[in-house]
C-alpha cells in the first residue's frame, strides 16, 4: 500500500509540473499577444509548452486517465497562477469548485485498480465523505430547554 502512495505522490508532482509548464508557457504567449511583451517571451513560452507535452509521458497511468486527471489539476493551478501573477483572486466558488475537481482527481489516481482493494478503498472514501459532510452541516438539535411549553 505504501508503494501505491509513493506512486500517487510522484504522479501528483508530474501533474503539477505539467500544469505549471502549460499555464506558464500559455501565459507568456498570452502576454506577448495581449500585453505587447517582447517576442522573445513568445519563443520561451512556446518551448515551455513543448515541455508540457513531454512531462505527462512519465506518468504511470494510461493516456486517457492521465489527461482526465490533469484537467482537474489544471483548474486549480490556473486559478492559482492568475492569483499570483495577475492579481486575480479567486472567489469562494472558484475555491470550492477547484477543491472538488482536484479531490476527485486524487481519488481517480489513487484508487487501487484490483476489484477487492478498490471496493475497500471506495467504502472508506464514502464513509469519510459522509463523516465530513455530517460535521459541516450538523443542524442544531433543539432541546426541551429551548422551548417554552406553557
Task: Report on the architecture of this protein.
By secondary structure, this protein is mainly alpha-helical. The chain contains 5 helices and no strands. The protein has helices at 2-35, 39-54, 63-86, 92-110, 115-136. Helix 1 packs antiparallel against helix 2 (39-54), helix 1 crosses helix 3 (63-86) and helix 3 runs antiparallel to helix 4. The longest helix is centred in the N-terminal third of the chain and has 34 residues, at 2-35. The radius of gyration is 21 Å and the shape is flat. 17% of the residues are buried.
Question: What's the SSE blueprint?
Answer:
Layout: H1 2-35, H2 39-54, H3 63-86, H4 92-110, H5 115-136
Amino acid at each position: 500500500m505504501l508503494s501505491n502512495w509513493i506512486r500517487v505522490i510522484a504522479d501528483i508532482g508530474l501533474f503539477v509540473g505539467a500544469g505549471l509548464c502549460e499555464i506558464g508557457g500559455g501565459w507568456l504567449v498570452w502576454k506577448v499577444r495581449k500585453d505587447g511583451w517582447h517576442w522573445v517571451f513568445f519563443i520561451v513560452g512556446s518551448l515551455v509548452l513543448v515541455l508540457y507535452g513531454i512531462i505527462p509521458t512519465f506518468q504511470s497511468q494510461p493516456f486517457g486517465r492521465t489527461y482526465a486527471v490533469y484537467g482537474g489539476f489544471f483548474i486549480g493551478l490556473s486559478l492559482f497562477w492568475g492569483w499570483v501573477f495577475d492579481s486575480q483572486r479567486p472567489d469562494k466558488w472558484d475555491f470550492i469548485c477547484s477543491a472538488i475537481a482536484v479531490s476527485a482527481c486524487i481519488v481517480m489516481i489513487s484508487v487501487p485498480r484490483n476489484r477487492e482493494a478498490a471496493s475497500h478503498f471506495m467504502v472508506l472514501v464514502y464513509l469519510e465523505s459522509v463523516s465530513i459532510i455530517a460535521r459541516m452541516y450538523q443542524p442544531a438539535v433543539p432541546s426541551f430547554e429551548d422551548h417554552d411549553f406553557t
